[in-house]
Amino acid sequence: MRLCRFNDNRLGLVQGEDVLDVSAALDVLPAVRWPLPQGDLLIANLDKLRPAIEAAAATAPRLKLAAVKLLSPIANPSKIPAAPVNYRAHEAEAAADPATFHGQHVQRITDVGLFLKSNSSLVGASEGIAITHPERRTDHEIELAVIIGASGHKIARDDAMRHVAGYAIGLDMTLRGKEERSLRKSLDGFTVLGPYFVTADEIPNPGELQMTLMVGNELRQSANTRDLVIDIPGLIEMASSFYTLLPGDIILTGTPEGVGPVRAGDVMVCWIEQIGEMRVPVKAATAG
Ligand code: MN
């Protein structure tokens, strides 16, 4: 099942080039009031939602996917854990580029673990990203995003995939500079998720997915998730050995080699095998 959030917070079931507006299925979600429960309500209730979505699809209005405004398919994660350098070739690339890494030693994931991005940085493909510091480099990082389904703490490697609800394409946008990584990667719009959410049953082997990122017609990043230093079960085991993972948490698995700058007017064309294509515009900063 492929689910998107579109336009004015509508729920969409993606079928090929079309989106079925199945927002009526949202009625099965529990009514909540302050304080809101931690974690994403839609992902936490996905099993209950599935039959409601299938029922709603029978009479749902049909739209063109290309014509809707795509928001982040996950609305309310409790956190966005992200892997630093987690592809061997990107590690070599980073080590060979002391100027852009300010002469620091490249931090290896096996030493430094994971970092967190702000939830408020999360947007969908159609919202795009803004260049707010034009005097500095803003870099693209395509990553496979793993969405947690069932919550868990100290999850064993062998159980890890049972905690995965599904996948999406992630963009971990990065402002280059000397500040803490979590600050430079948490600007508004710097976590793009989409184009939609693909449930785990559709991708039986996420450890072998090809991905590419193009800026215009220029191929910048091309890699396969089989080259991850720490694979998906390993990332879930590591993250949950420190904190509880909750439904809707978004694990960004790390970017491969080929990171590079984007400028206002660019369009990033991201593609991951078995998920699809996500086009993300880069805009100039708006005043205020
Ligand atoms: Mn990254």
What is this structure's SSE topology?
Blueprint: E1 2-6, E2 10-15, E3 18-21, H1 41-44, H2 46-57, E4 62-64, E5 70-71, E6 80-82, H3 88-95, H4 109-112, E7 115-117, E8 122-123, E9 129-131, E10 138-140, E11 142-148, E12 164-172, E13 174-175, H5 181-184, E14 191-199, E15 210-215, E16 218-224, H6 232-240, E17 250-252, E18 260-261, E19 267-272, E20 276-284
Parallel strand pairs: 8-14, 9-20
Antiparallel strand pairs: 1-2, 1-5, 1-14, 2-3, 3-4, 6-7, 10-13, 10-18, 11-12, 11-17, 12-14, 15-16, 15-19, 19-20
Number of strands: 20
Task: Please work out how many helical segments DSSP would assign.
Answer: 6
Helix content: 10-25%
Biggest beta-sheet profile: 10 strands, mixed
Q: How do the helices and strands follow one another from N- to C-terminus?
A: EEEHHEEEHHEEEEEEEHEEEHEEEE
Alpha-beta content class = alpha+beta
- What portion of residues belong to β-strands? 25-35%
> Mean pLDDT, rounded to whole units?
95
List all distinct small molecules, including ions and cofactors, that are bound in this structure.
Answer: manganese (II) ion
Low-confidence stretches: none
Radius of gyration: 18 Å
Distance between the termini: 39 Å
Overall 3D shape: globular
